Amino acid sequence: MARPSPATPTWAGRFKPGDRVRVRNQVTSGHTRVPRYVRNHVGRVEQVAFAWPNPGESAAAGTYGEPELVYTVAFAAADLFDPAADHTLTADLGESDLEEP
């Protein structure tokens, strides 16, 4: 099986740069690539990064699935860790892991 390469999306997604999004907390016995510390938190879309097969579906099926948009989402570290944190954390998250706040 050929490994996919990150592709520039040719379709519009649900979100655009500047949109606020909440990271879904999918409690599942399956595979997730979403870090626990960002689940249920609200961030801001920085950019549409690329298109890539959903890693949860790929791990479950053992093959690469259909690509989905991946967004770079920025979070205030103070919201995630400690009120004294003064930096921004970014995470690349698939569209299926995001929802409107």
Characterise this structure.
This protein is mainly β and 101 residues long. The chain has one domain (20-99): SH3 type barrels, CATH 2.30.30.50. Helices cover 11% and strands 35% of the residues. The chain has two helices and five strands. The chain has helices at 55-61, 77-80, and strands at 20-23, 42-53, 67-76, 88-94, 98-99. The chain has a five-stranded antiparallel sheet. The longest helix has 7 residues, at 55-61. The radius of gyration is 14 Å and the shape is globular. The N and C termini lie far apart (38 Å). The model has no long low-confidence stretch (mean pLDDT 88).
Write the layout of secondary structure elements.
Blueprint: E1 20-23, E2 42-53, H1 55-61, E3 67-76, H2 77-80, E4 88-94, E5 98-99
Antiparallel strand pairs: 1-2, 1-5, 2-3, 3-4
By DSSP, the count of extended strands is 5
Radius of gyration: 14 Å
Q: What is the helix content? A: 10-25%
Oligomer: single chain
Give the CATH class: Mainly Beta
Strand content: 25-35%
Shape: globular
Q: Uncertain segments of ≥5 residues (pLDDT<50)? A: none
Overall average residue pLDDT = 88
Q: What string, H for helix and E for strand, traces the elements in order?
A: EEHEHEE
